[in-house]
Amino acid sequence: MITQWQLRAAFAARLSEMYGQEVPAYTTLVDVSREVNEDVLRAQGADAERLGSISRVTAERHGAIRVGTPKELRQVARIFAALGMHPVGFYDLREAAASAVPVISTAFRPVDGEELARNPFRVFTSMLTPADPRFFDADLRSRLEAFLADRELFPAELLALADRATAERELPEADAERFLRLAVHAFELSPEPVDQAWYQTLERISAVAADIGGVRSTHINHLTPRVLDIDELYRRMTERGIEMIDTIQGPPKWQGPDVLLRQTSFRALAEPRAMRTPDGSVVSGALRVRFGEVEARGIALTRKGRALYDELLGHIDEQVSQNAADARGDIARAVWERHLPGSERELAAAGLAYFTYRLDPDRPRDGNRPPTSVSELVRQGWVSAEPVVYEDFLPRSAAGIFQSNLSGEGIRNNEREGTAYDAAWLSGAIGHDVLDPFALYEQQQNRSLAQVAHELDLTGALG
């Protein structure tokens, strides 16, 4: 029998192999990521594995897909449920992007600590918003919804096998093999000719809308390895002649702890696609929709820490607008060093980041009672604090990656009021609760504190 985590690991590996065949520059990205990780491990030793073992980091991937309707989103949720992956977080890229990115998103991923350690594969999944009048007028919305309703992304056999794997939490080997073949095939780039006129109609509104609603299939848009030094990876990829986007999205490089998520990518490549013209003939064309993203993960911030992060981004934007000649990275670094604690211990003491706690094997054994505050337990050597890895995404960074790989700004009418979506709406669309990432991190931290309190025989909650 093949368990859910084994299905997840196999799916991630096969998807990576398939994507490398379709987009050879992705294989280069994976190779360079591995080289950088090996170099960092040699240079830093155990410190390099502070945010995950090297085996986990090397195997780690996140994918990105795009669907058009709540029905398609529910179906893809069934496929990922078979892999032990749950919807976590609500992201509104319409509001995070300056250009036309008419999608809302969630990320499907494991949520249990052991499952994340076994294989942390996650898929950032975006859904088109045809009902938003800022992008689509009534006529185009009607045509787009009819087009989407008429297509089938996932065969019934795949969905049935997914439901069985979800219910039984495993599949017999032969059924697992069939499920994996069908699942990987569902995300391959289709050779079916693209309706050129229809695609161009949507592309004028948004390249993202065209990629979702201009074709009769879906596909992996990018597959992302994890790297321990994203700045060095950026340098090496550029050195190899691969065109990268202009910036690394997310927090700046600085001397303090890595927090949240830093991302960059190589630019979307012009890939040959068959195009059906209005007269019915098929011609050779090219579309730029797929790219190679890479990420470096840091410590998960608390709600308070995330509010500070967003506030600092505002400071950076303001200073960049006033000092156009100064590099954004230099401004961001200075803001970070001025406002963000420079050590993990300070982050924890300020309640800005999540940690798990465990008894230190070298803790005091002089017969004295331990303190009842977490910070004092750590300071006096009773307890060790280990940072919780940020497993999720940043709307502004995701939008920045999308925008950097678009062929144009698209059309967005801000005089019209946008259609409202939120996590509750998305939960209803999927048919499962979209989980709150902050709550997941907090539960992880609180479980460790409860265990420490129990082992030290401390009554009440630790402060």
Automatic annotation (TrEMBL):
Keywords carried by this UniProt record: Dioxygenase, Iron, Oxidoreductase
Cross-referenced InterPro entries: HGLS (IPR009770), YdcJ_bac-like (IPR047869)
Molecular-function GO term, any one: dioxygenase activity
Mitochondrion keyword on record: no
Cofactor(s) required for function per UniProt: Fe(2+)
Classification via CDD domains: VOC_YdcJ_like
Known EC number: 1.13.11.93
Aminoacyl-tRNA synthetase keyword on record: no
Family note: Belongs to the 2-oxoadipate dioxygenase/decarboxylase family.
Record-given protein name: 2-oxoadipate dioxygenase/decarboxylase
Species assigned in the record: Streptomyces bingchenggensis (strain BCW-1)
